[in-house]
Amino acid sequence: MASTLVKKYFREDTLPHIWCPGCGNGIVTRAIVKAIDSLGLDKDDVCIVSGIGCSSRAPGYLDFNTLHTTHGRALAFATGVKMANPKLNVIVVTGDGDSSAIGGNHLIHACRRNIDITTIVFNNNIYGMTGGQYSPTTPTGDKGTTAPYGNLDANFDLCELTKGAGASYIARGTAYAAKQLEKYIADGIKNKGFSFIEAITACPTYYGRKNKKGSAVDMLQTVKESAVMDKAWDKLTEEQKEGKFKIGKFHDVKKPEYTEQYGKLIESFNKGED
Amino acid sequence: MKHKELRLSGSGGQGLITGGIILAEAALHDGLNAIQSQSYGPEARGGASKAEVILSEEAIDYPKVEKSDILLSLTQLSCDKYIGGLKSGGILIIDESIETPDRDDVTIYRVPILDTATNKLNKSMVANIVALGVINKITNLVSKESLEKAVIGRVPKGTEELNTSALYEGYNLIN
Amino acid sequence: MTIKLMQGNEACVEGALRAGMKFYAGYPITPSTEIAEISAVELPKIGGKFIQMEDEISSMGATIGASLTGLKSMTATSGPGFSLKQENLGYGIISEVPCVVVNVQRGGPSTGLPTSPAQGDIMQSKWGTHGDHSIIVLYPNSVREIYDITIRSFNLSEKYRTPVILLLDEVIGHMRERIEIPKDAEIEIIDRKKPTCSPEEYKAYEVKEGEIVPDMAAFGSGYRYHVTGLVHSETGFPAGATKAEGLMRRLIDKIEDNTEDICTFEEYMLDDADTAIVAFGCTSRSAKSAIKSLRKDGYKVGMFRPITIWPSPEKQLEKLSKEVKRILVVEMNDGQYYLEVDRIAGKNTKVEKYGRLNGEIIPPDEIISVVKEGYNG
Predict the structure, then answer these.
(1) C368, C362, C325, C374: which is closest to C345 by C-alpha?
(2) pTM (2 decimals)?
(3) Which of C186, C216, C243 is where one domain is finished?
(4) ipTM over 0.95 threshold
């Protein structure tokens, strides 16, 4: 029997979803819905926008205003939605390739404007929907169908990237620690500005098989063991950091939000007329 | 006047585009049709720049000036560049700093436009308005009232008086 | 009645505002930049929104996003920028989002001839985005007509729920000309039809009996629905191959079945003509000037000027092909619209092309010589 969460927030007639058995996307999607539920947002006031890829199919299953756009462009469409109606809670759901390769330019500029959009990246380190090509977050040396001899590229640290670009709230969680991820997403939605939450998840079908990472359960176990809270991370030696990654809330600052600033500009003309 | 085509030329920054717009607006005040166009891109920065104006009692179809009836040149470079595009029988108005070109098929007026702006009005910026006075005194393209109204309507606030006197200094340069 | 001297690009913004534009997203590129600049000045004054995006692709995306959220939206570009718009333009077509895309053309391909005029995007405006589709493309030839046709672009986009492309020439976009601003009573403004049913009953992509397009709810108005670039069913959710033919047919037919409403044109001195010039935009002004001169010399020449170039005014061109001995298509390209005119008229009469690729408007004298050369009165 469907949970109350599913009943309240999912479009049951669009299920089952397209994700593979063992995929972490369901956990991350649930965390988003739980976060929205914890904030008590009206479904009519939430707009979820996505690009192209496995994760970008999530909005179709969710009972909000939902917009499934073109590859990499979710933030561009979302910017138009937010500008047109700043009262909407705009949430972007995207993948690692969608947000940081083809959509990388839109990501850094949305950060720079500090526009009030919450972006959740489902980072599975691979292009899943097209069948396992390496992405900007595939670790150097790992394999993909287009990196048959190991990936030569250095990989992005998306949280560092968005911090440099000007986002006001940045956190990284995992599909293993779903409760914590939920909290980061809820805090991100509450932040009046651009919020970036990286959710580390696993693709057993492509990334896992290509790189001999074991079963879906093994992969989630690895995520758990590799994730280190930021305070503990700082105490690790470079050697101890090998193969691990940092999680936590990395950045949370107040600064002018784009649509609010534009609203003030409009207001200044209204006053001028009186 | 049925249909007249003008080319106002000089260097970028001499306000010739504004001059062209003012002339076209004056023509509208007189109930005429008018088109103003200009050069864009790198050509508009430095070197020779131009504004084109077509004034007509009828509808203006082709919007570009091929051979002009009137050519104004405020610099040697622009005069050299556009003199070939002046109709035989046309009117050439040049600043006195420019050498009189070898065209015995046109009427030439050599006038101290830049000097009047710089030394008499103490504002080189108003050379374009002085030039408009000169052009209109010679050609009578638009009514005096309409031209003055168009000048006042286009120039920055607070400079109306200066520009009106520039216009009249221009008129005075032609007897 | 207000009479003004106005630049073509300015008239485009003035027309857009009159039509109800409340959102503009763009990226700087000449010769269209004034459209962005003036929108940036005017929109906040009326509570509208302007944003300069990071590129052309995102400008198109934001324009669609804002329209889905209920605002009449526009973007403008030129040359290479129009190529970049094509991706999300296709999205606007399949997801049926009204918006206006202005292309002030310049010479190409690539960076080409910045920023000299050209009419080289005739085919791109029709087929620029991938896949089968139909599209509305309008092409004014004066400053006043830019004003009117910009309003019409918005009206058609709202009525048919589709992006409308407004093709402009640099020559008209940048020149200043006399314009009479029409009174309110002379202007028709069309707004998209909103749903009247309850949110529970709302099917976002269902066309009701007697309607051309589905009713359109704004995001945030209480009608929660799904929009996708995938082939979708009446509900808006992805549907796969079984629904593809039906959806595609509907998207194409809503335009092609309504050409009577969509197509406008000008006929000039065609009554007794044995030779017809087909021209649009600034080239039609050269042609008109040439015709006036040719008529004085006894040549029976007229002009057919499509103002809607896509869908093409097929019926009128076919009729014309039975009335004249010769059709000369004059355009500032290597014969793009000629292909369409020849397709329609070629079986009934001789169709010829005359073009230019040098970044300069075709002067009347050239048209006069071409007409005289092959004249057979």
Answers:
(1) C325
(2) 0.96
(3) C186
(4) yes
